[in-house]
Amino acid sequence: MKGFLDAGLGAYNLHFEFMDLTKHPEPTYREEFVKYLGRKFAKQPIGLIIALHNPAFSFLVEEGRNLFTGVPGDQRDHCFRISL
Questions:
Q1: How many domains does the chain have?
Q2: What is the model's pLDDT at position 80?
Q3: Does residue 63 lie in a domain region?
Q4: pTM above the 0.85 mark?
Q5: Which of 75, 47, 80 is nearest to 61 (CA)?
Q6: CA nearest 59: which of 4, 32, 11?
Q7: Which residues fall within 8 angstroms of residue 12, CB to CB, at 6 or more apart?
């Protein structure tokens, strides 16, 4: 967090999601989480997504692939940039 703040990003520019995908692997949970993220960020542009764990990365590749279509892609042409 300190690194983001030192770079000039205020806390209002940062959003953290704890997805609990390991505890809740069922498809309905994942589907509802996609809907939740879609509502939460519908009117707020996202410039970078950092997935810290494989379940989050898989979620973004699978269920979340159409959520953040304006975010720059990585080398595999996903609709988001991932940093593991």
A1: 1
A2: 46
A3: yes
A4: no
A5: 80
A6: 32
A7: none
The domain containing residue 74 runs over which residues? 45-84
Cβ-based neighbour number of residue 57 at 10 Å? 17
Q: Which two tokens stand for residue 79?
A: 């609709």
Give me 37's structure tokens: 């993220």
Half-sphere exposure of 50 (CA within 13 A, CB side): 8
Q: Measured between alpha carbons, how far is 2 from 4 in angstroms, rounded to an integer?
A: 5
Whether 40 has a pLDDT exceeding 60, the answer reads yes
* Residues whose CB falls within 8 Å of the CB of residue 67, separated by 6 or more in sequence, listed in order: 34, 37, 38, 41, 60, 79
- List, for residues 43-80, the tens digit of each pLDDT value: 887 777 777 788 888 888 888 888 877 665 443 334 44
Q: Residue 20 falls within a domain, yes or no? A: no
By the 8 A CB rule, do 80 and 74 touch?
A: yes
